[in-house]
Amino acid sequence: PITALGISENEVWEGYANGMISKVINNTLHTVQLLGSRPASTLRAINKSGNVLWLCSEQGVYAVLNNVAVLLNSNNGLSDNFTYCLAFTKHKILAGTDKGVNIIQEADNALQIKSITADQSSGLPDNIVRVIKADKKENSFWVGTEQGGIVKMLINGKDQVLIYKSEQWNWGEVNDILPLSDKSAWLATDDGYLLKVVLKNDSLLVAGHYRPCRSIKKILLDRTGNIWCASGQGLTMVTVEYATNIKLGAPYSLDKLTAMLCDNTNTLWFAEDNDFYSLSLSDSVAVPKLIFTAPTAITTLFADKGYGIWAGTFGHGLYFWKGSQ
Questions:
Q1: Of 19, 23, 1, nearest to 60 (Cα)?
Q2: pTM (2 decimals)?
Q3: Each residue of 183-214: b (16+ CB within 10 Å) or e?
Q4: In this predicted structure, what is the pLDDT of residue 67?
């Protein structure tokens, strides 16, 4: 069976449970015969960086150049040979293993490997690392573990590693990560949760959650802002419907949502029956602000070009809001 799939520019690569790899050429699958140290166990990930194809296996990490494979394992400094995932920056490669994260980089014409594990005082909350995703900021990564939740990892100019963790984790094993920025991301867990996490005051907080299915294996963001969830039940598309399942403290209850819009100042306006709220989407942890309470339910909202907000009610007229009035 196919156990790993990699896409690089116009190339599609497949990895298999027996350690073999294939490449799609002109819509036809071609087996790639590797020379050198060939994988003989299940491939967990396959990624290409520059001209080098990288493979994660139960024997370590393989670097493939011109169909010649070279193995990096515990003999070279890896903390563990069982590897799950890879992430890349311009000068570094991060590998997730059964014993933490390994940072691989070239120095003095040789590869250097530094391990970040749960055994270190300022290390990971859990050693088993299933997923690593780089965000748009250089040397900034999101790390998902089996039992310890999500970690934000920063590598500064002196190669010092900074770790930010979540205080509590009750959401299950992290299967996939969709970075939004260097301070926020969506997560998919094995318990079926789709979570939004934000970095605030050196700690990771769960800002909202949704449970579309029993177990989410992979998530993908399309160009219209929909999140696609892959599970054992098939594909689930999550749009703004997820908002009805975000748990907020009283007095907010998004399952009573009657109208909603977002204006050109990045402010979300919404109504819950009679109550009219504003929410700044520029804040890392947004808190709704009650604007006013109408005599009857607010059924529709409109934002004009002059930054005014119009609210139509059920049988009690039209309200206009601009600035603070």
A1: 19
A2: 0.71
A3: bbbbbbbbebbbbbbbbeeeebebbbbbebbe
A4: 92
Percent residues over pLDDT 90 in the chain: 44
> Tens of pLDDT along 74-105?
999 999 999 999 998 878 899 999 999 999 98
Could you give the CA distance from residue 263 to residue 276 in angstroms, rounded to a whole number?
A: 15
Distances (CA, A) of 261 to 93, 272, 277, 279: 42, 13, 11, 10
Place of tokens 């748009």: 136
For the chain, the distance separating the N- and C-terminal CA atoms, rounded to the nearest angstrom, is 63
The Cβ of residue 172 has, within 10 Å, a number of other Cβ atoms equal to 19
- pLDDT (tens digit per residue) in 279-293: 877 665 667 888 999
Say which residues have a Cβ less than 8 Å from residue 43's Cβ, sequence separation at least 6.
3, 4, 15, 16, 17, 19, 21, 55, 56, 57
How many residues are recorded in the chain? 325
Residue 156 predicted with pLDDT over 90 = no
Q: Whose CA is closest to 207, among 159, 243, 259?
A: 243
Query: Within 10 Å of residue 155's Cβ, how many Cβ atoms?
Result: 21
Asked if residues 142 and 177 have their Cβ atoms less than 8 Å apart, the reply is: yes
Helices (H), the chain: none
Round to whole Å and give the CA distance between 46 and 95: 12
Confidence of residue 124 (pLDDT cuts 50, 70, 90): very high
